[in-house]
Design a protein that fits this description.
Shape: globular
Oligomer: single chain
Low-confidence stretches: 198-211
Largest sheet: 6 strands, mixed
Distance between the termini: 44 Å
Mean pLDDT: 85
Number of helices: 8
Number of strands: 13
Helix content: 10-25%
Radius of gyration: 20 Å
Strand order of the largest sheet: 10-9-8-11-13-12
Length: about 300
């Protein structure tokens, strides 16, 4: 499925054609616990009926998906996209600022389905030398624990060719706050797409929504899923042991603590707490781990980590 615009769905056939389809009502009453029963990236079967309208009759099982807490219904999730080969989280230090808490929540959701994720530090042309040093400090935190990073700028073209190479032959999800430059990056990769790019609000220094619905586009031998800007990334459905295991550097200390069921929060003989104290684990990551365990909407805003 390429795009959803309300009650209509654009479906790409094996031959490359696009067919507008509607969803049978029966899909809406099968206990689906999400705001959207079908999402971009889903593989579906459909039929064309006498009214010349396409009707989706089956949704294939998903190999993975990225979801977050619905902004209005806290116990219901909103699936962003499905059947993803890799994700690119586009982040900026300012105009707008991406919190480290947002980054860690997104990475946790991706770890749940083992979706390889790259962090794309965008708008590198707008930063001072001091700001670039702070970005490098944050970048090293994530590189150290195995998340590849890129430094990009659509103004100078920095990092764009490397990004293109990474996307070859894959379904790539692009996500991040409004205003971080997702659509601008995608336009730079393929100018024929001509996605709308928004300005930054001077009042709140936040991005304005330019992508209303998630959509998939074919680019060379791969596909890009462009998503609407996400204000916050609320998590649902994760158990404490899952949260522990989805933080890579914390998972690496499994079975090393004094207690097998150690939560790494207060127990004596905890190797994770020792690792935080001696600098092996970044304090920002550990604080966000604690915040997620406690269900707190905590955002580590400070990027000056050196």
């Amino acid at each position: 499925m390429m795009q959803s615009t309300g009650s209509w769905y654009d479906v790409r056939t094996d031959s490359g054609e696009t067919v507008s389809c509607r969803l049978r009502g029966q899909f809406r009453i099968k206990g689906i616990k999400t705001t959207n029963p079908i999402v971009v990236g889903d593989h579906v079967e459909f039929i064309i009926e006498a009214d010349s309208c396409g009707y989706i009759t089956r949704i294939e099982p998903r190999k993975n998906y990225i979801d977050r807490k619905s902004t209005n219904l806290s116990k219901i999730s909103h699936i962003i996209a499905a059947n993803i080969d890799q994700a690119f989280l586009v982040v900026t230090m300012k105009e707008p600022r991406t919190s480290l808490g947002f980054i860690d929540r997104f990475l946790l959701a991706a770890e749940g389905f083992r979706i390889p994720t790259h962090l794309v530090f965008n708008k590198m042309d707008i930063y001072s030398e001091a700001e670039k040093e702070n970005i490098e400090a944050v970048r090293q935190i994530y590189e150290k624990i195995g998340y590849p990073t890129l430094l990009t700028s659509t103004k100078t073209g920095a990092g764009i060719e490397e990004l293109k190479s990474l996307m070859s032959g894959k379904v790539s999800l692009f996500s991040g706050h409004s205003g971080v430059g997702k659509s601008a990056i995608i336009n730079t990769i393929d100018s024929n797409l001509n996605l709308r790019v928004g300005a930054i609000s001077d009042v709140h220094n936040k991005g304005k929504h330019t992508t209303t619905f998630a959509a998939m586009f074919q680019v060379a031998d791969g596909f890009i899923i462009d998503t609407p800007g996400i204000k916050e990334f609320g998590l649902i459905q994760y158990k404490p042991d899952e949260i522990r295991d989805y933080f890579r550097e914390i998972r690496s200390f499994n079975n090393q603590c004094r207690f097998n069921n150690c939560t790494h929060t207060h127990e004596p003989g905890c190797k994770v707490q020792e690792a935080v104290a001696n600098g092996e684990i970044a304090p920002s990551r550990y604080e966000n781990y604690i915040a997620i365990l406690n269900g707190d909407d905590m955002k580590i805003e400070e990027w000056k980590l050196k």
